[in-house]
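Q: Focus on the shape:
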Amino acid sequence: MKKRLILDFDGTLVEFKPVERLDELLTPGYFSKLFVFENVVLAIQELYKRHPEIDILIGSKVLDAPHIPKDKDVIIDKHLPFINRENRIYIPYDAKKTDYIQITSCDYVLDDLTKNLVEVEESGGHGIKLLNGINANKRTWKGPAVHKDYPYTLIVEQLEIYMNLKEKENEMEKV
């Protein structure tokens, strides 16, 4: 089976901005104006160039408003256009991601929430925590992690190690 990297959106590719009122999140354009974690996006772009053999998907929860996936698509289209629409999975906010994305041992999920990563691992996949400066306060995640402020080259190297992509490079060098 082909390896997949499944990316969360809020708090992983873009900032998570706490709001005082829910209606702020429901304002059209809200999600398309969030600050992009540039090093994370650059790392995903580089990983895609180095490893075209892996599939890269988005697995993002959304509130029940039809414009929210479109807002998120604006950022994805601009920064990660190689992730086609079929590989952008928008999940109802109250649902488990693993109920909408069938997880296998070939799946690696980059997410900022420990709860989501635990569900992925319980489903047979592999979780990688994105540390974004506001999460990981309880230090409950004991698995692999990268920080949004790492240089993008380091994020790529860490993802390659966590996803066992380095082994293929080393094997090819021996030939």
Remarks:
- Confidence is low (pLDDT under 50) at residues 168-175.
- The longest strand covers residues 55-62.
- The helical segments are 22-25, 38-50, 67-79, 114-122, 152-162, 166-174.
- Residues 39 and 152 are 5 Å apart (CA to CA).
